[in-house]
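Input chain follows. Return structure tokens only.
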Amino acid sequence: MTLIKSISGIRGTIGGKVGDNLTPVDAVKFASAYGTWLKKAHSKDKLKVVVGRDARISGPMIHNLVVNTLIGLGIDVIDLGLSTTPTVEIAVPLENADGGIILTASHNPKQWNALKLLNNKGEFLNGEEGAKILAIAEAEAFEFSEVDDLGEITINDAYMDIHIDEVLNLALVDVDAVAKRKFKVVVDGVNSSGGIVIPNLLEQMGVEVVKLYCEPNGHFPHNPEPLKEHLGDICALVLKQKADFGIVVDPDVDRLAFISNDGEMFGEEYTLVAIADYVLSKTPGNTVSNMSSSRALRDITHKHGGSYQASAVGEVNVVELMKATNAIIGGEGNGGIIYPESHYGRDSLVGVALFLTYLAGLEMTVAELKASLPQYFMSKNKIELTPEIDVDAILVAMTEKYKDEGISTIDGVKIDFESTWVHLRKSNTEPIIRIYTEAATQTEADTLALRIIQEIKEVVN
């Protein structure tokens, strides 16, 4: 059982002891810290915060605790109820709110939940802001409002529909072109809010939808991280239904993966690559992804005459670098699409609409599209952390071992070899070390990963 405080928010498992897990007391404590920080940051008589949640089982409990804590601080709440991360992100500026909270543990299993915190632009807080909130929580420096100054709740359950409208109105989304193709698509909504919003979006684009695990009851039918080893059911159903492709999202709908028409993974790394190829063909410019993402985005960007840069892992880091380089599109290799024409947040709805528009203009299948893109293969592994493992010592040792190669220590350690790379970093969301490798073949990527894992074990021992 774990409580993780990081740039990604406050994330933990439900139940157990206060301070060790995301208990009701911890949820109130960190909501109080966020509300207190907002009041200090904004010199206004009345503040407003947007709150939404995914469909996980603990959602209603955490939701009620957080909303009523904000009310107790004298902050008004726009309550979206069941929602998605990108939906809350677009709602904050549309509501002229001072901040937002998304209650979701994203791709983590059902025993997890989290408070993901937004600023008044609907963007994730940076490290400095997060540190201030953690300090307020640690000191329990809260002051609640008297009875006449309590906040009020306004319920607005229309925002997933508003979000769909925003996406369909994007200049590079062509609903008519998509509708003419009469696509058939299987959707795995992992029994969360994506099971509602993605089929609705598709149907409004004239797509025939086959639903799989689209009941938002929080009982995830498989590990909710959209990786190949978890997606056997949708791969089989795409083939059985003779669908054009399949769509998989995580519980809060900010990660997007496709299944090709042949029942094989399109590859979550290639979600961003394919959509960037379309966007850059219409609006050339720069791109950004994180250091754990495929070199394929770099290749596509150069093909269209743009410049590519890599940031530290974490949406806030990608967004910061995108703004600094005026990037047209960016995101993360985990299937996260950030398209500033919509907003600065990973958004599966935006990704789906752009991908469909791209596909509608091509005379090829999804499998053929994948084969036309630059070909790289990744191996994604992890090592579970125990208290005696010194992550910093491991990273220092690996840096020294490969000091004659291309080394970056912006985020963990990334080692660039001539035709391959490896990225080692401590996760912000789980007690693990992530080991990502990429090469020209899957065998080469897997072999490199096994070698690095063995070298790490030797350092630990």
